[in-house]
């Protein structure tokens, strides 16, 4: 591990999963035959506090299932998930209710994740209201503060989500996610639908928020160029397993697993072509 | 026998030779034919796509195209395209680059004569000498899919989920030819082979949900190319794919383009995809073309501040820099707002690092330098 990564290395993991398994049982469309899809088969993952851990892998590798398990939207078949040393996979409703606000999710499709009939302020205020953190006029005040924090003008508070652009909607979703002051934020392909410039702006916002609130991120992405710029740690998922994990420079700099090598290779090809063109070569 | 010089870009060839036919050839060439005369080509490593079938006029010629969307009574129409001029020559690859809201997809829809109702478009769109806007819908249908085809962005959503993908390719053939069922199937299978499937039998009979994301994209390409169109429009064809699958799809596009020689218009927001792929790049901002030129020239020395900003977005970390972590990412500050579009002056001025007083009052005109165009007052500073 390099010095830079060692400085960020965890004393203890904020989130830890041990031997996590999850199967989905599917039935054929016109037959009764059932078959199981193993989405997670024994996932061990440590997520260091205050760091950005990136989870990369192709589609169908189980990234989103892992995110849903971590966000307690899905119950794993076996294995355990620990948050700050407490198990969240044990079926204790009170404990789950207490821990749930600490973990928040930001989805890819911001248009689908925000209620189109709510105004921006109502969307941000909803979790505060449900968790009884704020009430009365203070509720709206807090929503406006959060809007300002994510770089949205507070006088847009009465606009509906569809009046915002894609990047602004994603900012709105981030404001809602940080409303409860979570410790852990899962970004499930949250930046994939955005163009490069907007992506960079939203990422800069996330980096600002990280230092302001000492947040821990799990960034799920298939975009290795993006991950290579900002991740502290990288975990590579393939067919329901973590096949490689370590610091960014370990995993991307000297990839061991064939799947990681293939991913890194593709980025190298892309970068080489771009640099050649910039140098005035190529076509 | 006349020796001639062929350069890397079709534009400069055009300067030397107008009204001449150059046959499209596969492979490396050093000899070719012009109007019956054998000519030696001085450039030995020309790629086939650079040897274009160049008649006197471009395949597609867009002039002064302005498109407005009417959003409802009482509101001003939203401008989507503003006086766009663009030529696409047979056999070339043109990349259209810009962020969301730049009008890239509207331009694609206009070329495909598929603008939604409630739009107002003025200007001219000539395809192979025909004025597209003057054609009636039934005539447009004979062109769409057969001569101008589109590679859909999300094949997972666009393909019919209850129809075998092979039949969906054959359906395109049926709409545009008199071939019988057997011939249609043969043609579709041949096309599936062209896009890189080795197990054509399985893919032909598969339903969309049985194929992976990358496979679906290849099916979409097969569907677009099966009638051998002369112009193919690919609107963000790799958006939802990971970097490996993205590379595969670009390779398929490159191979089929090399083989069939259709002109390809590739729409994207990622400049890296165009490097080493496209011949020419067109940069759009707020419905306008702000810069245009050969990819190698534009990428080496972008003239417009917006292009400079876009090219800076490509990470400076990455494999070559040893995966350095960035504290902040380079971004173009600000966003495109509606107010900017109606304000006088340059539409990019509010976000531009190089703006001066003149940018807020006057609109820059398009300046032409050889085969490049740029619309900025300060491009030569």
Task: Give a brief outline of the structure.
The complex is a heterodimer of chains A (283) and B (381). Chain A has 283 residues and is an alpha/beta fold.
Count the domains of chain B: 3
Distance between the termini of chain A: 40 Å
Structural class of chain B: alpha/beta
- The main sheet of chain B orders its strands as 8-9-10-5-11-12-14-13
- What is the overall pLDDT average of chain B? 82
The number of strands of chain B is 14
CATH level 4 superfamily of the largest domain in chain B: P-loop containing nucleotide triphosphate hydrolases
Helix content of chain A: 40-55%
Query: What best-fitting shape of chain B do the alpha-carbon axes yield?
Result: globular
What value does the Rg of chain B take, in angstroms? 22 Å
Helix and strand run of chain B: HEEEEEHEEHEHHHHHEHEHEEHHHHEE
DSSP helix fraction of chain B: 25-40%
Report the mean per-residue pLDDT of chain A as an integer: 87
Radius of gyration of chain A: 20 Å
Give the topology, please.
The complex is a heterodimer of chains A (283) and B (381).
Chain A: H1 3-8, E1 15-27, E2 34-47, E3 52-56, H2 63-70, E4 78-83, E5 86-87, H3 93-99, E6 103-106, H4 110-113, H5 120-130, H6 137-149, H7 166-178, E7 184-188, H8 196-213, E8 216-221, H9 224-230, E9 233-238, E10 241-247, H10 248-253, H11 258-278
Parallel strand pairs in A: 3-8, 3-9, 6-7, 7-8
Antiparallel strand pairs in A: 1-2, 1-4, 4-5, 9-10
Chain B: H1 10-16, E1 31-34, E2 37-40, E3 60-69, E4 78-88, E5 93-97, H2 104-111, E6 119-127, E7 130-131, H3 137-143, E8 148-151, H4 155-158, H5 165-176, H6 181-194, H7 200-205, H8 213-225, E9 231-235, H9 243-260, E10 263-268, H10 271-274, E11 280-285, E12 288-294, H11 295-300, H12 305-312, H13 338-342, H14 357-361, E13 367-369, E14 372-374
Parallel strand pairs in B: 5-10, 5-11, 8-9, 9-10
Antiparallel strand pairs in B: 1-2, 3-4, 3-6, 6-7, 11-12, 12-14, 13-14
Helix pairs in contact in B: 5-6, 5-8, 6-8, 8-9
């Amino acid at each position: 591990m390099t010095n830079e990564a060692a400085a960020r290395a965890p004393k203890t993991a904020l989130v830890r999963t041990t031997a996590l398994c999850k199967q989905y049982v599917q039935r054929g469309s016109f037959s009764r035959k059932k078959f199981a899809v193993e989405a997670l088969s024994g996932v061990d993952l440590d997520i260091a506090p205050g760091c950005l851990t990136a989870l990369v892998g192709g589609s169908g590798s189980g990234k989103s299932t892992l995110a849903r398990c971590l966000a307690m939207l899905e119950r794993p078949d076996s294995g355990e998930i620990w948050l700050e040393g407490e198990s969240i996979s044990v079926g204790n409703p009170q404990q789950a209710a207490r821990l749930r606000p600490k973990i928040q999710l930001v989805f890819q499709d911001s248009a689908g994740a925000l209620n189109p009939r709510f105004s921006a302020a109502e969307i941000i205020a909803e979790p505060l209201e449900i968790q009884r953190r704020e009430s009365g006029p203070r509720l709206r005040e807090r929503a406006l503060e959060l809007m300002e924090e994510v770089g949205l003008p507070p006088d847009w508070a009465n606009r509906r989500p569809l009046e915002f652009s894609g990047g602004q909607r994603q900012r709105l979703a981030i404001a809602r996610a940080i409303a409860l002051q979570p410790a852990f934020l899962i970004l499930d392909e949250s930046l994939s639908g955005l163009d490069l410039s907007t992506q960079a702006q939203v990422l800069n916002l996330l980096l600002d928020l990280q230092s302001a609130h000492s947040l821990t991120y799990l960034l799920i992405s298939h975009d290795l160029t993006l991950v290579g710029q900002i991740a502290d740690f990288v975990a590579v998922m393939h067919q329901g397993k973590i096949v490689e994990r370590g610091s960014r420079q370990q995993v991307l700099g000297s990839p061991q697993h064939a799947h990681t090598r293939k991913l890194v290779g593709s980025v190298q090809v892309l970068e080489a072509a771009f640099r050649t063109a910039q140098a005035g070569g190529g076509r | 026998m006349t020796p001639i010089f062929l350069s890397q870009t079709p534009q400069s060839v055009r300067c030397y030779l107008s009204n001449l036919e150059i046959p499209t050839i596969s492979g490396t060439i050093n000899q070719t034919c012009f109007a019956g005369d054998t000519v030696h080509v001085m450039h030995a490593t020309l790629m086939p796509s650079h040897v274009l079938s160049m008649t006197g006029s471009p395949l597609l010629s867009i002039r002064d195209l302005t498109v407005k969307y009417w959003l409802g009574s009482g509101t001003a129409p939203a401008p989507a395209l503003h006086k766009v001029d663009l030529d696409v020559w047979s056999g070339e690859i043109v990349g259209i680059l810009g962020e969301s809201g730049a009008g890239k997809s509207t331009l694609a829809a206009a070329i495909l004569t598929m603008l939604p109702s409630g739009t107002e478009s003025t200007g001219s769109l000539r395809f192979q000498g025909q004025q597209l806007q003057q054609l009636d819908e039934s005539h447009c249908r004979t062109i769409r899919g057969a001569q101008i085809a589109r590679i859909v962005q999300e094949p997972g959503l666009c393909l019919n989920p209850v129809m075998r993908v092979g039949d969906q390719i054959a359906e395109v053939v049926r709409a545009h030819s008199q071939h019988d069922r057997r011939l249609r199937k043969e043609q579709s299978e041949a096309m599936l082979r062209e896009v890189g499937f080795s197990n054509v039998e399985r893919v032909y009979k598969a339903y969309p949900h049985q194929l992976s994301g990358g496979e679906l994209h290849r099916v979409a390409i097969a569907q677009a190319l099966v009638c051998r169109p002369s112009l193919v429009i690919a609107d963000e064809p790799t958006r939802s794919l990971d970097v490996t699958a993205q590379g595969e799809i670009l390779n398929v596009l490159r191979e089929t383009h090399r083989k069939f020689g259709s002109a390809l218009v590739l729409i994207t927001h990622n400049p890296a995809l165009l490097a080493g792929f496209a011949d020419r790049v067109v940069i759009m901002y707020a419905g306008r073309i702000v810069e245009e030129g050969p990819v190698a020239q534009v990428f080496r020395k972008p003239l417009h501040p917006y292009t400079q900003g876009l090219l800076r977005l490509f990470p400076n970390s990455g494999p070559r820099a040893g995966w350095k972590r960035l504290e902040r990412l380079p971004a173009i500050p600000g966003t495109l707002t509606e107010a900017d579009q109606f304000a006088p002056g340059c539409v990019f001025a509010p976000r531009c690092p190089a703006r001066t007083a003149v940018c807020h009052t006057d609109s820059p005109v398009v300046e032409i330098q050889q085969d490049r165009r740029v619309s900025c007052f300060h491009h030569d500073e």
